[in-house]
């Protein structure tokens, strides 16, 4: 995964080619799905083409034979900017007839897109944005939060690290909604577990590539754990530079609060070994995760999907099952009706297994705390994780009572 900064590119809104099984049949109505993410920047390898490949795989696995509708896919690059994300989403809903938007990393963009979906009565399935506000104070009847959030990441990684002896923390944090909430939630779990936060350093996002001044602050604090409240290329760069500055040699433990398998791959095992991280999906977790990975992997340059990309597969498959149940005409008439149907139906797929969707729109999935293997422990490419602990699905999501979601009846 490249770690150099991108050049700014214009908005990309691209019609995708459907798999042969799903070619439009004359007389059938089309459901249109918009995959909105970062196709060229910091979060490209977190989401990007991999999410698109997983969406296409879900459509293919859903099947075209005997269905009374076809599925079209559009792709947009929001450049991690809320105004760009809103512009693309409005164009899709108003001009292009898009019925559902999925993915949307970057929490500030995710919140903006959720508002547009509510206004236009369309469906938004969030897989990439981590903010808990999507099912909290800003929840709405058109939005589902599918794969992970800051609460899950903070609870799984923060509390477990304190229990293992990492009881003093310093945070290096991306200065926007996602990073701020992740630091806040992790700090809460650290202190509840008996630990102490010694300080933090906020850095400008997405303008920062040199983390030296922030790492010097972390080193000077004397904290046993340096927690990185960031993701994508920022996580790669900051963790690499932490090693170069000798933080681990000095005895500090590094905790990636949103480190996914692509980041580990970019870091390489000699650099990433021992790192603690949380994902809700790992390709080698069980027979079902290995099965879906084997189907989509050839479409991803032989790389396995990460949790965000796999979440796009799961969300799309459940969405299409809901449409099949309620009928295309009803689905197109009301996005909130589709979301209500998705909440009623049990979820079952090769990514997460059997799960449910809560009334606030939170898809309940377990959180897995992994430790990155030493090079000698790995049996081959992408064999990177060993399971340390599992947080059950109902404990991995924020408690309903703390969410203050208007949809939840007290």
List the helices and strands and how they pair.
Layout: E1 13-15, E2 29-37, H1 48-62, E3 69-77, H2 82-94, E4 100-103, H3 107-120, E5 123-126, E6 143-145, H4 150-163, E7 168-174, H5 177-192, E8 196-203, H6 212-221, E9 225-229, H7 232-244, E10 253-256, H8 261-267, H9 269-272, E11 276-279, H10 287-296, H11 307-326, H12 328-333, H13 335-344, E12 347-349, E13 353-357, E14 363-364, E15 367-372, E16 385-391, H14 393-396, H15 400-403
Parallel strand pairs: 2-3, 2-4, 4-5, 5-6, 7-8, 7-9, 9-10
Antiparallel strand pairs: 1-3, 11-15, 12-13, 13-14, 15-16
Helix pairs in contact: 1-11, 2-3, 4-5, 7-8, 11-13
Helix content: 25-40%
Under CATH, the topology of the largest domain is which?
Rossmann fold
Taking the sheet with the most strands, its summary is: 6 strands, mixed
What count of helical segments does DSSP give?
Answer: 15
How many beta-strand elements? 16
Structural class by sheet pairing and helices? alpha/beta
Give an overview in words.
With about 400 residues, the protein is of the alpha/beta class. It folds into two domains: about 15-150 and about 285-365, Response regulator (Rossmann fold, 3-Layer(aba) Sandwich), CATH 3.40.50.2300; about 150-280 and about 365-395, Response regulator (Rossmann fold). It is about 40% helix and about 20% strand. The protein contains 15 helices and 16 strands. The strands form four sheets. It has a six-stranded mixed sheet with strand order 1-3-2-4-5-6, with helices on both faces. Strands 8-7-9-10 form a four-stranded parallel sheet, sandwiched between helices. Strands 11-15-16 form a three-stranded antiparallel sheet. Helix 2 (about 80-95) packs parallel to helix 3 (about 105-120), helix 4 runs parallel beside helix 5 and helix 11 (about 305-325) crosses helix 13. Residues about 1-25 have low confidence and may be disordered.
